[in-house]
Design a protein that fits this description.
- With 165 residues, the protein is of the alpha+beta class.
- The protein has one domain.
- Helix content is 32%, strand content 21%.
- Strands 2-1-3-4-5-6 form a 6-stranded antiparallel sheet, sandwiched between helices.
- A hairpin with a 3-residue loop joins strand 3 and strand 4.
- It starts with a strand and ends with a helix.
């Protein structure tokens, strides 16, 4: 699977970001450390935004900066992603993938089932209900959802620069 992953962090100077290569990231804690490093001594937050094959997206958030021990918060737009994606499986370490059914036999794409912390962006302008509504909106691609949540948070310009390379 191909993906686009970006790390965005709010610092004292505003939002900053880098594109991420997740091939070298072994687990969620290592990713959280990378995100914390982006905030420097600030409180953040730092976010990882992943769009994988226009099929699903993931959000990871850490707060508190480089010295923080705060646990990362994770949201996946579709829990079935853990079956098809090593990255999604790594992010959702505690997911019970045995409960995730593969519905390819039905001939139609089943409805996605978001999982995780729906309040991950609530203080950044996207409430839990808005995030779930974006996931459910027919025809809206993961990249569109990420753009919308970044617009709400005021970091869409950083995300667009990273996408353009």
């Amino acid at each position: 699977m191909s993906y686009f992953a970006a790390a965005l962090a709010r610092t004292d100077q505003g939002w900053t970001g880098v594109e991420l290569d997740l091939a070298e990231v072994e687990d969620l804690e290592q990713l959280a450390d990378l995100l914390r490093d982006l905030t420097g001594d600030g409180d953040g937050p730092a976010l990882m935004m992943l769009d994988e094959d226009d099929e699903h997206f993931a959000l990871v958030r850490v707060d508190g900066g480089a010295g923080s021990l705060a646990e990362p918060r994770v949201f996946l737009s579709d829990r079935r992603a853990v079956l098809a994606s090593e990255v999604a499986a790594m992010l959702w370490e505690d997911a019970d993938s045995d409960d995730v059914e593969d519905d390819e036999d039905e001939g139609t794409r089943p409805v996605a089932e978001p999982v995780g912390d729906t309040t991950v962006l609530a203080d950044l302008g996207t409430s839990a209900s808005d995030l779930l509504a974006l996931c459910a909106e027919e025809g809206l691609l993961p990249a569109d959802v990420l753009t919308t949540v970044c617009e709400n948070a005021g970091c869409d310009d950083v995300l667009e620069r990273l996408r353009e390379g």
